[in-house]
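Researcher: Next sequence.
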Amino acid sequence: MKILIPVDGSDSAQRAVDHVIKQVPLLKDIPQLLLLNVQWNVAKGNVKLFINQQTINDYYREQGIAALQSARASLDAAGLTYQYHISIGTPADAIAQYAQEQAVEQIVMGRQGQGGLKSLLLGSVVKKVLQIADCPILLVK
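Model: Next structure:
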């Protein structure tokens, strides 16, 4: 079984990781775990006129690694193997696309992301993933 856990560095995303760790001993086979962090595309418009692509790529990588740090530490401590990937784009679309590309059987995600004003402006990633993903989704409170 392939399980995708989208991780944005929020407490809610960490609860999803912790939930999967607790469920693994109950499963017949150890699942293949995929962590995904999606970075918003900041290189739009004239940004590339002032910042080179390598600097932008380094920024995405640094932010993605930072967001994944806690989830990776938890999975390492539990002795579970996993793969991680950092995508650039709109989070809900990137999550659904990655799940489809990887033939994921389930997405496990927190009910809310980083929240606050950001979530009001950007809308609910969870709500959109529920609408567009082709596989079952488990929301962790």
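Model: Residues 53-77 form the longest helix (25 residues). Strands lie at 2-6, 32-39, 82-88, 106-110, 137-140.
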